[in-house]
Amino acid sequence: MNTVPFSLDIVSLQSSYDSGARAPLDVVEAVIDATATDPQHAWIHRIDAQALRDRARKLHARGPEGLALYGVPFAVKDNIDVAGIPTTAGCPDYAYVPQRHAFVVQRLVDAGAIVVGKTNLDQFATGLNGTRSPYGACRNAFDPARISGGSSSGSAVSVALGQVSFALGTDTAGSGRVPAAFNHLVGLKPSCGLLSTQGVVPACRSLDTVSIFALTAGDAARVFSVACAFDPEDAYSRPAQARGADFGSAARPRLGVPRAHQLRLIQPGYAQAFEQAIDHARRLGAEIVEIDFEPFLEAARLLYEGPWVAERYQAIRGFIDRQPESVFPVTREITLGGAKPLAADAFAAMYRLKALQRTSSATWGTVDALLLPTVPSHPTIADMLAAPIARNSELGLYTNFMNLLDCAGVAVPAGFLDDGLPFGVTLAAPAHQDAPLLALARRWQDALQGRAATLGATGRLTSPRPGSAA
What we know:
By secondary structure, the chain is of the alpha/beta class.
């Protein structure tokens, strides 16, 4: 497997730096070797090897003091700007070369992190599956016949393979959580506006978030703490707010699960896997509360069945009207459909969403967070290509509502099925509950046992675990 031959979780990596066992140049050389070939189609552009070496040497000369992410390699989804590197959004004819980093990339670089390259995605971040790219369908880290998830496909796979410590994605409908579930990762979808989208090619600008893929919830929290800052240049940026009790550290957090008839789990073994996840939550001390999930499901349907698809059209309107043949066929079909809704349709949908926001908000009086399957199934690439819109729609069943209802969410591993594929769940809560969610995710992950406790597809455990090997 094309992976770095030691663990890149941030705790292990920084421990090796502190002990002198490794230097940033050692890590960069290993990353260069691991990414020299790309059978998974995870990468679109890799930074020049000499430039990576120069960055590592400069960091080593400066030293780690004051750098929270000193020498930590990371990947960037190719709809997020990295200065001097083409941003394609998965469409070669759309590409441009930015003069500066996106706001979040700059904050991470300033903290000592090392950009390794730009990763593959469903074109213009339209899709949850990872097959809608002229750079090739991105292949799952566990089974190359299965989809990787998307749209942040390469970001997830590069982390799961142990090629980078973390990666940036984006998440409008589930693109930072679905690939996490399929590749046995943590995927943080922060509250809208907490991570700036300045320097990000928009999908639905009013709903877009930058997301974080990591091997551990602790790593995701560390990256989030660095990236999170108010950006006056981003009209949708907002400062983080304190909100409610810290349920993440509570002895008995209340977790809401859908009523049985509201669960639609298609993949064999998923229903049993979710029951086992509920049992895992109970062992952590959680109180499990059944909730009416219908308002969340209805909100989810609004995202693609309602007029919000018009935002996708608006985002690339000039380009797709001029060069429709440059856009991937299924992406073109979906995006041009956004030209059809009337302004009256948009207002009608906003009125309905407002009602659903009111109805769903009552849930937070009875639970601290939701516990959901991240996805209902894991299609093969062949299945996805045979029915690209129908299969993709299924994947957003438990993810599409979150930005519309202003929720934060974190996808976490929950074990493996009999066929060897990973199963994941998502913890969700109202906006600005990112810190408690990450704390709960860390408790969840720390309590996993056996293969479920491994990091991505590397087979390794994080360093604090007894008997782990870096």
